[in-house]
Amino acid sequence: MPYIAPQKDMMFTLEHVANLNQVFADLGVDLDSEMVTGILDEAAKLNQDIVAPTNRTGDVKPSYLHDGKVITSPGFKEAFKAYTEGGWQGLSHPESVGGQGLPKLLATACCEMLNSSNMSFALCTLLTDGAIEALLTAGSERMKQQYIPRMISGEWTGSMNLTEPQAGSDLALVRSRAEPQPDGTYKVFGTKIFITYGDHDLAENIIHLVLARTPTAPEGIRGISLFIVPKRMVNADGSLGAANDVQCLSLEHKLGIKASPTAVLQFGDNGGATGYLVGEENRGLEYMFVMMNAARFSVGIQGLSVMETAYQQARDYAAERIQSRPVDGSTREAVAIIHHPDVKRMLLMMKATIEGCRAMSYYTAGLSDIAHHHADESIRAKALAQYEFMVPLVKGFNTEQSIEITSLGVQVHGGMGFIEETGAAQHYRDARILPIYEGTTAIQANDLIGRKTIRDNGAVALNFADQIDETVAQLSRIESLATMAQPLANANTAYRQVVTFVLNHSKNQPNHVFAGSVLYLKLAGLLMAGWHSARAALAAQQQAQNGTADELFLTGKMATANFYMQHILPQTTALAQAIIAGGDTVADFDVSCF
Amino acid sequence: MPYIAPQKDMMFTLEHVANLNQVFADLGVDLDSEMVTGILDEAAKLNQDIVAPTNRTGDVKPSYLHDGKVITSPGFKEAFKAYTEGGWQGLSHPESVGGQGLPKLLATACCEMLNSSNMSFALCTLLTDGAIEALLTAGSERMKQQYIPRMISGEWTGSMNLTEPQAGSDLALVRSRAEPQPDGTYKVFGTKIFITYGDHDLAENIIHLVLARTPTAPEGIRGISLFIVPKRMVNADGSLGAANDVQCLSLEHKLGIKASPTAVLQFGDNGGATGYLVGEENRGLEYMFVMMNAARFSVGIQGLSVMETAYQQARDYAAERIQSRPVDGSTREAVAIIHHPDVKRMLLMMKATIEGCRAMSYYTAGLSDIAHHHADESIRAKALAQYEFMVPLVKGFNTEQSIEITSLGVQVHGGMGFIEETGAAQHYRDARILPIYEGTTAIQANDLIGRKTIRDNGAVALNFADQIDETVAQLSRIESLATMAQPLANANTAYRQVVTFVLNHSKNQPNHVFAGSVLYLKLAGLLMAGWHSARAALAAQQQAQNGTADELFLTGKMATANFYMQHILPQTTALAQAIIAGGDTVADFDVSCF
Fold this sequence. Notes:
The structure is a homodimer. By secondary structure, chain A is an alpha+beta fold. Chain A is built from 19 helices and twelve strands.
């Protein structure tokens, strides 16, 4: 059963949760809803017709290493050609480097479609986006003009080389080194692992961005610089020269996203790979962090995407599979399992989670647009702080939920879910990388606590709580939505308690606070997704009252949000208890008892 | 890192939670703790040295079909020989049919070890146990003597043939047919799918137990009979005759337990497979249910087992992997990740869940022993009702938790967890079948509500709540454990509310009640595992006070139980809210909105 882009919900969310028209007006972007719909139509067509059919094929026939070169899965070259020729790689990049300069809000919906269609394929474009962002942040003007237009055109792609065997989450342990040469270039040496699309045959060149240390660099994270190391050298006239000193030693054999080549790259085994310093020495990690915020957001979208695909498949199966009589005795015949209460509950859990995560994610994309492009500096600053608070939630929460939701997708299928040919199992395997790469959930949670909650003494965190109070008040005033108010208010109370606990105890009891870091992230994610679901329900109620739009869709929207409030939000209270009362059960535990 | 049987915790749980000595005394079993320890030592040796090394090999080299015959994974034949020659297949079966007649309590600990070592391998013995149980329940004396001793010796194995393409959870839809022959035998025709060890090369014959309809049978579940259909015919003198008319058409390509062959079997394509009616016509499903209670319990143990293996691997990795400085600034060096609060939390979540599930499961095994073998009929009856209440919890809760716990096992490994060679991913894949086969969690939950809660008007369910009150009172009286009392009391309150809700609304609002069926199962499972964890903590405190035993072990036991109370049990309140306030959000949802 093929993927169909959920355009109706996407448009509703863009317009009524992420305030698309307001964002576009603020940014001076000359697009209306109709034009956005047109762009999403085109994206849907490409993704449904060309990208999605490669998803299962890629899982069955993963990329492989042959004679030191990576051969990608069947159909990937054609899909990459269609994607880049259609201009999608440059969608949100500046026009000055060959992009289309469109808002992230719009690009996010397209990104969701691409990742729903084939996460393994999408990773190539995601890593290229990351490399482009890094060069835009710290590259020289010459670098930008030399590399970015050809990465947008699809002639070249990008890769991010951070991890080493001893340096995963802890980049302070990076050992790769870069020796300055008389001509201003560097010779780069080292082994990098887990390099997504570190080699492939989709483009003629790969622009590797590599973290390494110069000989005089201080130890730790303050001694890491960023280098461009092209797979093939680029001549002054832009033509390709000889191969650089980079080898793909092996590909990992992974649980999921099997079509995406995960390479071990060896730099400098034959005298040193030629590299070019990006920005200033020892500021590599800082540049990486700018890029990483964007990449983390995209991984959060991957979580949303894989949930949507899993949901569509489970829903379609449940509508067709006939099994058992209904428990209410309404007929003596076996019925489609979609009518059985527990199957309905599972599908609602999937649908409500997806709509909550989509609402939260698109809202966050809108914040990014305002943060980066609004004319008013103070509005930019405020939006930036909010955006940065939301990034670990979009990354951490969407991806953690994607494990549970893809697991439910398997469960809805019963025994067929365990058979690989069905396809449900692939989503369960694919999703499992999401809470790990681009910073594990614990890393996101540390970021949420340290940089995003404590640094401003909870200002942004608590400002969100105030906004949620307003939504609670709005819900209370509308009879048909009033039952949603209390659960949202309770969740907001739990959130405030935890923020206060974090602020009060992070200095004197850091081990207690950080024992609850991931739980705080989950609580905040549950609340934010619930809040925006409630906002969506309010908008739906408004529209239904106006009597203008699709009634069934609006009814479903409100009912799904209500399920979220009653079934999902109560978890927040349990999490608050675990964080506040349970901190010492972790902090005081003697590890020799494990 | 090899599996090591957690014998210390097993013995502690057997003695202090499942009251091993009392059970043995009640049953007149002539075994003491020392002899039990000796048996567990032997089981540990076999499983650690011979079975466990085949687990990863079996995943990499699954069983396969060659010329219509299934070839099992490397090492499986040797392991099966060692297992059956050691007498382990007959451990808990009656001495009258060649077994050792030992209590289920003891067999459960051995079953846990076997499944921790290799779930795919263990399935062959588990299905043989199921076939033996069915024959013990309904087979003629001649059948028992003809088949069971050779299934215990390992010359033959058993298989259970229920599922057909159109009949999964709903056995009323079974279409396989059995035509009576003049000689009293039947000709069996039909296609059976998902047949675990439906063919293999570990033994010379397979005793297929097959559900089919006779020509005069009524429709639905009251028209299903049970037949023995041997893979090879058995001559009157016990020697093997010609092949029966059964073919293995194909093996499934599965997400996990890849070494376990899951067959499509075709019966009767060449004139009809010879079958022998077991018991009476049309009572097949009834016989199957007796057997299924045993099999469901064993699948629950599989959930426990795979969690233990995942935990051991994650713990060992976390103790070795050096990454990042501690958040409390206690040193400027990177430390083993086991010291980081979120890793500790994840490992505690794993350990506390495992110990809770083990305690609940062993306690349930003890109930089974009393229920089946106590001299006093009224004690037997009471224990049977309690045992039957617990079976869907052991099956449903342990297996649902195994998804979350094996997922945490991957997460603790970071990026390495996603690489298949690490082994953590295999547990995540293997575990995924557990909430599906032998009745999905929804089927368990229906059983819990219908047969186990409503039928006796909540008598057994609420009696457990009263017992839990006593444990709460005991905790309150002991200063060092007093903090555990309130969370347990809260969970018990949530449980009582839900039992009352189920009892009051199952008739007038069945769709509302069944929308919360799985949540009720989870709530009850969380509570029962927590209750027995609390009982374990009380026993540990008592021992620690006596000053006789291993102090570190006892401290860990109490601290782990406390983690359970503070971190895990609060979920029960959230579940109760979802069940009670959220029923209508599911029941009233229009499926055309999906």
